Amino acid sequence: MVRSTLLPTVAIVGAGPAGSLLAAVLGRRRFPVHLYEAYRNESQEHARSSAPRRRVGVLLTWRALHALQAVDFPRSALDRITVPIHGRLVHAAPASSPKLYRWRLPNSSQFGQLLAVDRGELSAELLRLAMASETVQLHEGHRLTSLRSHANAEGSPLTAEFQVSAGGSDGGTSPPTASIHRSDADLLIGADGVHSVVRSQLLRQACSSYDPAAYDPSSCDPSASWSSGNSTPRKGDRSFEAIHTPSPHGYKAIHIPNGCSLLDPRYVHTFPRGMLGGCGAFFHALPHPDGSMSGTLIMRMTG
Q1: 52, 87, 202, 293 from 102: Cα distances, Å
Q2: Is there a contact between 118 and 81 (Cβ–Cβ < 8 Å)?
Q3: pLDDT tens for residues 182-205?
Q4: CA distances from 101 to 39, 91, 268, 270 (A)
Q5: Cα–Cα distance between 266 and 44 in angstroms, integer?
Q6: Cα dihedral sign for 21, 142, 117, 90?
Q7: I need a surface site. Which of 33, 148, 162, 166 has the fewest CB within 10 A?
Q8: Which of helix, strand or coil describes residue 171?
Q9: CA distances (Å), 272 to each of 93, 160, 207, 283, 297, in order?
């Protein structure tokens, strides 16, 4: 990795589509970037396992396609991993005919349609673009465990600590280890998904959380320590640990090998059942170029 002394070092937590895209953008601008991913190379893991790889389908809007243009995403790769989508078919009830909703794109859009893509394949292509820059370094098997500020002053940089999983050191060339890696980057960006560890820790530092039952916000001091949910704040200590506040909803990815022979591959298929805020459920399916479909079932964890 080539280090520039004129530009700040950036740490990005999460090497999914958002993190890899951002690393590619910053790498093209010569920023030193450390890209941290909690998991090891999924394609290598899949090659060693007989279990089918979980596929999560996502929809690329015209905004996403515009972002891909910023890193010169190859058109050949886009055509290979995506399926054009012309609208949404809503299957409201088993006995009724599905209702078609066609997409309405802004007049300024250069793209005539939306595209369905496998999230893993999109991440892999974006990661390849990011790693083409000599200023980007990937750290696989690094799971964020804590953040700590250097001083009590506002705006002070944070030290991020990562648990390095066995066999998850950089490049997979080092022997298996379970060590701690520390990053003192000038800027840390959380791109680690809906259950972001970065977000939860920053919310904890700011005396707030998605779960009011986790602790009493009225007793929170911005300069206090929250090393655990039941700990007593200590004045002057700004350290804090990760909080994982579960969502009341969960999802299950479902692979449908012959999905495109069962459902029209030109559309996103949605199956709403009841009110999602109550005890209802929601299922939608997206096509893939190989004729399969990936479905996602969303429903409450309890009730």
Answers
A1: 33, 4, 40, 20
A2: yes
A3: 888 889 999 998 778 888 887 776
A4: 37, 11, 10, 11
A5: 32
A6: negative
A7: 166
A8: helix
A9: 8, 41, 37, 6, 10
Q: How far apart are CA 60 and CA 66, in angstroms?
A: 10
> Tokens in use for 265?
């591959």
Quote the radius of gyration of the chain (alpha carbons, Å).
Answer: 22
Cα distance between the two ends of the chain: 51
Please give the Cα distance from 239 to 231 (Å, whole number): 12
How far apart (Å, rounded) are the C-alpha atoms in residues 196 and 188? 13
Torsion of CA 197, 203, 206, 211, to 10 degrees: -130
In the numeric block, the tokens 């009724």 are attached to: 96
In 3-state terms the chain splits into helix, strand, coil percentages (rounded to 5) of: 25, 30, 45
Phi, psi of 19 (to 5 degrees): -65, -40
| Amino acid present at 184 | D
Distance (Å, whole) CA 249 – CA 264: 28
Q: What is the pTM of this model?
A: 0.74
Number of Cβ within a 10 Å radius of residue 80: 11
Which pLDDT does position 247 carry in this prediction?
A: 66
CA angle, 297 as apex, 291 and 300 as ends, to 5°? 175
Please give the DSSP secondary-structure letter assigned to residue 212.
G
pLDDT band at 93 (very low <50, low <70, confident <90, very high): confident
CB-CB contact of 267 with 84 (8 Å):
no
